[in-house]
Specification:
The structure holds 2 protein chains of 2 kinds.
Chain A (H helix, E strand, L loop, with lengths): L2 H14 L5 H7 L3 H22 L1 H7 L1 H14 L10 H14 L6 H18 L16 E3 L4 E7 L12 E10 L6 E6 L1 H10 L6 H12 L5 H16 L3 E4 L1
Antiparallel strand pairs in A: 1-5, 2-3, 3-4
Chain B lengths: L9 E4 L2 H10 L6 E4 L9 H13 L2 E4 L13 H14 L4 E4 L2 E4 L2 E7 L5 H18 L3 E4 L14 H8 L6 E5 H11 L3 H6 L6 E6 L3 E2 L5 E2 L8 H14 L4 E3 L8 H42 L1
Parallel strand pairs in B: 1-2, 1-12, 2-3, 3-4, 4-7, 7-8, 8-9, 9-12
Antiparallel strand pairs in B: 5-6, 10-11
Helix pairs in contact in B: 1-2, 8-9
Classes of the chains: A alpha+beta, B alpha/beta.
Chain lengths: 246, 300
């Protein structure tokens, strides 16, 4: 190992280990507190980024507990991405299995974190909005490529409601609006979620997609379905989730 | 439409916090913009839209945060390819990163971590810059960083180390005036003498920023405060010495309003105009003097 590589590895250990090792600090140099300043700067920056991506999760956990989870992740895993925005996903993919196994972490908090992560990632998705013409039943649907369907066990999207969130099956579409790049969250019923899933691939006409959903869900094709369908499609189009057809 | 053109005068970093008003008003005091590629690569949405709009109005220069020319391990080839595509896309005239390391063994600190000033670091930076230059096909500049602890493994001073790097014919420098000042106060040297050691022709760009002063007097390069008078004065000295070079006002936190930022940009423009005029006058005087000497020699 070269001396430079040795220095850089010691530096990373000093920044990320649960507690900095005295031997590692001595290896870097005599100015102990000055080297530890880097540890503080690195950890503060990463914790701030995690909070920026997961503000409600951090608030629900409490500052001390949230920072403790970030510290545990740093010690166990540390950032593997050069894109600092992606540490939010790295942290949560590490934390969620641990939260699921931790009786002190409520189940709704895992759902809340999952929703915040999807919103964060949808906001940054590197996809181009496809061209779409006017909507028509006999044409292939064009769905916003940022749209993601989330199945959760708690209504954590109701951000004006204070936690804890009671258990209730919840289907959400998280998407990024094409006109202003803002992310939106649209609650879905089971029929709307099934329809959106069927529309997403864009590999068959809207009529065929509706027929498939009706068959799979055992929904009679009648006037009640027509009313329901109109309402769902109107919402999807108005929200910018269904962009049109081609 | 891409706005191409010479990068000169005062620029600022493109930051989402100020971008909407900046792109709406397009103040003429701001002559160019700097962007961090890591904030845009593999990212759509507001960042992509904002960059596209910025490219319509200003020339853009790229400045990276995570390669670190002092990295002991080779760069990730896939990332370098992505970076190259991004640099071509925005049409940057050169690209810069730092005289430090930011990652090792696949871990990223997301900070600028110093290396000892010794022969192995020199060799490493030269090698990494050469590799990156070959892969990216663009002029590269390294930036001097603020550092807060001195390694006992160093056998060179920071300025000797920097000058040694610049002996490479292809080496170019992004001279961060605030970093020189911060280091000079923390480690006790004359910042003007430091800057006077840098060959002017090697400097392609200048950074200026504010820094935090702790109660014990120790200074931290935060980019979250206004530029202090001493750093303004050091910029004046630097520009008079190196001549017209694009100056970037860095601001990465504790954002002022755009109008407040523009007051600082105008102050920088005044300094830029005065110092570069003084630089030109000195060059003219030297040229006239040399011409007169030649003429006298011809007559004798």
């Amino acid at each position: 190992m070269t001396a430079l590589l040795d220095h850089q590895r010691a530096f990373m250990h000093m920044c990320f280990d649960a507690e900095p090792r005295e031997a590692g600090l001595r290896q870097l140099g005599a100015e102990r507190d000055r080297w530890l300043l880097y540890r503080d700067m690195v950890r503060t920056r990463l914790t701030k980024m995690a909070r920026a991506g997961l503000p409600r999760t951090a608030s629900a956990l409490g500052d001390e507990a949230f920072d403790g989870w970030v510290a545990a992740w740093l010690a166990d895993r540390a950032p593997r991405t050069r894109h600092i925005r992606e540490i939010v996903g790295e942290l949560l993919r590490w934390a969620i299995p641990r939260w699921n196994a931790d009786p002190n972490v409520p189940a709704w908090l895992v759902d809340l974190a999952a929703l915040e992560l999807v919103r964060w990632e949808v906001g940054a998705l590197d996809v181009a909005m496809p061209e779409a013409g006017d909507f028509a039943f006999d044409r292939h649907p064009v769905v916003n490529p940022t749209a993601r369907i989330l199945e959760l066990g708690h209504a954590v999207h109701e951000s004006e409601t204070a936690p804890p969130y009671p258990p209730v099956p919840t289907l959400l579409c998280v998407y990024r609006r094409a006109d202003d790049d803002r992310t939106g969250v649209q609650p879905l019923g089971s029929f709307a979620a099934a329809l959106l899933r069927a529309l997403m691939p864009g590999d068959r006409t809207v009529t065929d997609a509706v027929r498939d959903v009706a068959e799979r869900t055992g929904t009679p094709v009648d006037s009640a379905l027509a009313v329901r369908l109109g309402s769902v499609l109107e919402t999807l189009i108005r929200r910018g989730i269904l962009l049109g057809a081609r | 439409m891409r706005r191409s053109g010479q990068v000169c005068g005062i620029g600022i970093g493109l930051r989402l916090e100020l971008a909407e008003e900046l792109l709406e008003r397009r103040p003429p005091e701001i002559r160019w913009l700097e962007v961090h590629p890591e904030n845009y690569i593999r990212r759509g949405g507001r960042f992509r839209t904002t960059l596209r709009r910025a490219l319509d109005s200003w020339p853009v220069v790229t400045h990276a945060l995570t390669m670190g020319f002092a990295s002991a391990v080779p760069f990730d080839a896939a990332y370098v390819r992505e970076l190259g595509a991004f640099l071509r896309d925005v049409g940057t005239p050169w690209h810069s990163d730092h005289m430090c390391f930011a990652s090792v063994d696949g871990l990223f600190a997301h900070d600028l971590l110093p290396v000892p000033f010794h022969e192995e670091s020199l060799r490493t930076i030269r090698q990494r810059m050469s590799e990156a230059r070959d892969a990216l096909g663009i002029e590269l500049a390294f930036e001097n960083v603020s550092y807060y602890a001195s390694s006992e493994a160093s056998d060179l001073s920071e300025v000797d180390f920097t000058v040694a790097l610049l002996e490479d014919p292809d080496a170019r420098m992004l001279l961060d005036v605030n970093n020189v000042y911060v280091n000079s106060r923390n480690f006790g040297f004359d910042p003007r003498a430091w800057i006077d050691r840098i060959p002017p022709e090697k400097v392609v760009q200048i950074h200026i920023a504010g820094h935090h002063v702790r109660p014990d007097g120790f200074r931290i390069d935060t980019h979250a405060e206004d530029v202090c008078d001493e750093v303004y004065a050091l910029l004046d000295h630097t520009l008079e010495r190196v001549g017209p070079r694009p100056v970037l006002l860095e601001r990465d936190g504790n954002y002022p309003t755009l109008d407040e930022l523009l007051v600082q940009v105008r102050r920088l423009t005044d300094i830029y105009d005065r110092a570069t005029a003084a630089h030109a006058a000195v060059r003219e005087e030297r040229a006239r003097s040399a011409h007169e000497t030649l003429a006298r020699d011809g007559q004798s």
